[in-house]
Amino acid sequence: MMKLVFLGAPGAGKGTQAGGVAEALKIPHISTGDMFRAALGNETPVGLKAKAYMDKGELVPDSVTIEMVDERLKQADCENGYLLDGFPRTIAQAEALDQIMAPDCVVNLDVPEEILMGRLTGRRVCGSCKGTFAISRLSDPTTCPTCGGELIHRKDDQPETIKERLQVYHQDTEPLIGYYQNQNKLLNVPSVGDPQDVNNAILTALEGKA
Ligand code: ADP
Ligand code: ZN
Questions:
Q1: What is the pTM of this model?
Q2: Which residue's alpha carbon is at the smallest distance from atom 8 of ligand 1?
Q3: What is the pLDDT of residue 121?
Q4: Terminal C-alpha separation, the chain
């Protein structure tokens, strides 16, 4: 049983790391970014509310986001815990989560600012399996190396939107580091270099915490 939050700037590698860590710990991987993109694709009421914010790189309002996560955490698979990726992103969201089902541990994926921009502009996402890849590591920048699906340059991965997302991160999300430090739940893990090494570092940091 482990209730886990992944914290980090856009481009810190939350999505890349969360899948493997959730699998290793046998807990569901819950990405609010993925949930919003799925809602958008299905044109659900939540998706329609979120679209304008996502396109601009702004946060979806707390009320919408918190209700969506609250519903998700009530599902049966969360009885063994969860790995939240992309939530909370504001102090209000963190306070709400403490009411719903407080996390045991918070992993902060730490990446120097100057590396983030390059990572985000070079990021491609698979339309089929949702995997993310750096163009610098791909021989064919349009085809998913895992499933053969088509790779997409996300609309919110364009330079202007990236700047906005980094600004939103510093203003609204970075204060969560202090919030969880005060609760003695924060584990800081550098997220640079080989993704597999970062994965091992996260699992090592979490050892004995469940
Ligand atoms: P990133 O790659 O920047 O971490 P995500 O894929 O997690 O982005 O999220 C994409 C977009 O979805 C965000 O820019 C934001 O508009 C919305 N979103 C995701 N999670 C949240 C959240 N916890 N609160 C508000 N908006 C969110
Ligand atoms: Zn794929």
A1: 0.88
A2: 33
A3: 87
A4: 6
